[in-house]
Amino acid sequence: MDKLNVLRTYFGHSNFRVGQSELIDNILLGRDVLGIMPTGAGKSLCYQVPALILDGLTLVVSPLISLMKDQVNALAQSGVKAAYINSSLSAKEYFTVLQNASNNQYKILYVAPERLDSKDFLEFALTAEIKLVTVDEAHCVSQWGQDFRPSYLKIVDFIQQLPERPIVSAFTATATTEVKKDIIKMLQLAKPYTITTGFDRENLSFTVLKPQDKFKQLLQFVRENKDKSGIIYCSTRKVVEQVCDSLQAQGFLVTRYHAGLDDYERQKNQEAFLYDRSTIMVATNAFGMGIDKSNVSFVIHYNMPKDLESYYQEAGRAGRDGESAECILLYSGQDVRLNQFLIENSQEVNEDLTEAERELLKEKDRQRLKEITFYCTTSKCLREYLLRYFGEKPPNYCGNCSNCNTQFQTVDITIEAQKIVSCVYRIKERNRSYGKTLVAEVLYGSKNKRIRSLGLDTLSTHGIMADTSITNIRTMIDFLVENDYLEQTNDQFPVLKLSQRSQKIIRDKPTLTMKLPKETPTASIKKEKVVLNDNVDDHLFTRLKELRNKFATAARVPAYIVFTDASLRDMCRKMPQTREEFLTVSGVGAIKADRYGDAFTALIREEGNPR
Ligand code: ADP
Ligand code: MG
Known about the structure:
Blueprint: H1 3-11, H2 20-28, E1 33-36, H3 43-53, E2 57-61, H4 65-77, E3 82-85, H5 91-102, E4 108-111, H6 119-127, E5 130-135, H7 154-161, E6 167-172, H8 177-186, E7 193-196, E8 204-209, H9 214-224, E9 229-233, H10 237-249, E10 254-257, H11 263-274, E11 280-283, E12 296-301, H12 308-315, E13 325-330, H13 333-344, H14 355-377, H15 382-389, H16 402-405, E14 408-412, H17 414-429, H18 436-444, H19 449-453, H20 470-482, E15 486-488, E16 496-498, H21 502-507, E17 513-517, H22 538-555, H23 559-562, H24 565-574, H25 579-583, H26 590-608
Parallel strand pairs: 1-6, 1-7, 2-4, 2-5, 3-4, 5-6, 8-13, 9-11, 9-12, 10-11, 12-13
Antiparallel strand pairs: 14-17, 15-16
Helix pairs in contact: 2-3, 13-14, 17-18, 18-20, 22-24, 22-26
The structure holds adenosine-5'-diphosphate (ADP) and magnesium ion.
């Protein structure tokens, strides 16, 4: 079978997506490949299709148990013989899988990296016909990345022991140049064919909010999105517990996940979410790598994460099925301070590093934290900011982020900039430096206790911006910092300082403009949505969902493994009545058509007739 046939027969998709064809072709030509594609782009198919075409076995190294189980379930549903080996198997199950694998029962075998150097597994591997080794989430091999896993270093030793070197393919969503170079080096990829597809996820909308009361904001959102499935990420276990309890008290179907729970409960909660028994998952970042639940409609960050890599990866778990989905970050200054604290007090696990290397890593962390803080405070297009960070050159307006959608007006802040810089200058004359809020209060002319006790009400710049709101003054300060006209220190209590460019403001008086919100920033987050889900018959959609759930329950798999929401929507659109027509539905391949075709077309016929 050629690759297109495999795609259609097993996976039920009609065409390859960007990048998939090229990667598959190169693997089939025997060349190593490195695929850098955003979450949800369809990396799995890039090795699953060749696995079905090549003789012999494809070994997939993957970091998370949940991911393997999910993928193997999904493959089984599509009629592909696959299995996994990880610590969740009993000794008996483990040897059964090895036995079956030796008897060529599988085309694809997922394996946890920790297993690669175990004796039994090596024994098996030395005699098996391993044609392709795939490293999923390949950035885990890089110490410069944000998810380094020492066990990933075993992969290369393992490959070297094999009698014949297999083709090696590596995939990740993390794209910085350093990590990319590191993957090639650490996995010893041989002149890999490398592809980086665009990082944009059109169907995701991005929003940053700075609410006074985060929980109130959250509650408003989940109330407005009642039946939708979503993830709420929190920075600590404690916050997870609080948010989860509070939502539960309000009657929502929520569950939680963090490293403080025992394995059993983590597993149970994760499944509740995957199987839609709980619609909302409240979790720390321990949750999610490798979760490919396709119908996640929103990802809310209750706290700002440590860097944009983590943010984009976590937010990217929304809308994998291509339907429109929302990514919302609830920002507060406290989040920045917590992250700073974590960086400065992190217990470096890797003892092989020298003091200097450790300091370098810390410095990179600080830099990354600064970049995500700018993301939260910028008034420019959020998508542009994200994509630029990942090395692209996007347009400066996307129309689908909170900044593009809020009414902004371009304001000339030439004079304001001079006032702000002068104020920092006057403070410096007194050999002092203060944080953003205090400086804004001075400019506004506040006479609170702190200002008076520090004598700041006697500064000549006190009150010179009395006609601008403190919020807007702060936004202007952010803008000046972002454009290097002022500097903000990186420590636990960041303060404003003059930068190299500060005197330019006073001396050259350059014209400066920036975008400021027309209304107060407390405006509701409701905004126009990009229409991606065209109107499908709600009634039919609901009936199809019910039918899907029946099958899913019987097979004990999550509903989306039987069919994704996107497939059901496509059925509503196409109203297939025969097997042939059913096969044209996105996500329906030969196996699924055989298995479910009759039931679904019967239901559609029944619903299609005038009631
Ligand atoms: P990634 O690993 O890149 O995050 P996945 O491999 O999990 O993404 O795929 C994400 C979703 O995209 C899955 O639901 C998958 O079925 C779907 N998908 C992948 N390739 C195609 C394609 N060519 N056409 C339609 N859907 C696809
Ligand atoms: Mg993946």
